[in-house]
Write a structure and sequence with these properties.
The protein is of the alpha/beta class. The chain has eleven helices and 13 strands. Helix 1 runs parallel beside helix 2. The longest helix has 21 residues, at 96-116. The protein is globular, with a radius of gyration of 19 Å. It starts with a strand and ends with a helix.
Amino acid sequence: MKKQILVTGGTGYIGSHTVVELQAAGYDVVIIDDLSNSSADVVDNIEKISGIRPTFEEFNLQDYRKLESFFEKYPNIEAIIHFAASKAVGESVEKPLLYYRNNLVSLMNLLELMLKHGVSNFVFSSSCTVYGQPDVLPVTEDTPRKEAESPYGNTKAVAEDIIRDSVKAMEEINAIALRYFNPIGAHPSALIGELPRGVPNNLVPFITQTAAGLREKLSIFGDDYNTPDGTAIRDYINVVDLAKAHVVAIERLLDKKNQARYEFFNIGTGKGASVLELVKTFIEVTGVNLNYQIVDRRAGDIEQTYADTTKANKDLGWKAEKTLGETLLSAWNWEKKVRNIQ
């Protein structure tokens, strides 16, 4: 019998790719998603890729009673991967209470009910935002966490603290937090990818929508940072590589290979790329010109960050494989498919 994994936020960008990789690894997947930033047809596209239709339940994890009923309905879940959260940095600055309520109440409901229903293994979708603007690069797991630059970032830091303290208090639970850097790209099938509602908050969807003619021009937020070309630097990781890290983390917990009951790992490529470098690479691999302009810095953004992935490479046995060029090309192929561009 296949081991059953709950993926919250499983119709979202990273969640959907992780569902595909879990299915490929032989797991039975159940998704919870409220479709606030995704659509139900993602489930159809997951099935097209894998040949397996994941079970899907639609509700928000803040609803304690519905979540309790869910665990009663699915008594064989062995592990949880928790993606479901509001995630736009800019919006979190404008609507902090929405972010604290959605991201933290959902997490606490999950932890309380997984303990009650005998689920022992928990993988959390964390973020490099917990490091703030690091004093030293690259960022290792020993890099001190700093005060977050945004309410979104702070929800990730507080969530990690909640998980750490819960694991200390609840000896039945083991957890891994994956602090990932900047996920980009799409599945090579072009059947799933990043499709934000409204104006994109992330850079690559804005690039691909501009290239597709949906946006007049791309805004680059600041060119006066202390970086080689003045634009902000991030560690951009292919979403399929990132999804595979979650499978490895689940296997680590199920096989009881974790060295501590709560662990955390940086998930990135180990290399930084500037916004302008990303734009130029996109133009190079796609042959599509981009109309872009430099505008003022955006509230909540940090100057530069990229990962030291030694711990993930060594302890998890995971490593990013895709190049920046092929990742950006996959994002463009996804955009073209969504927009019916030849």
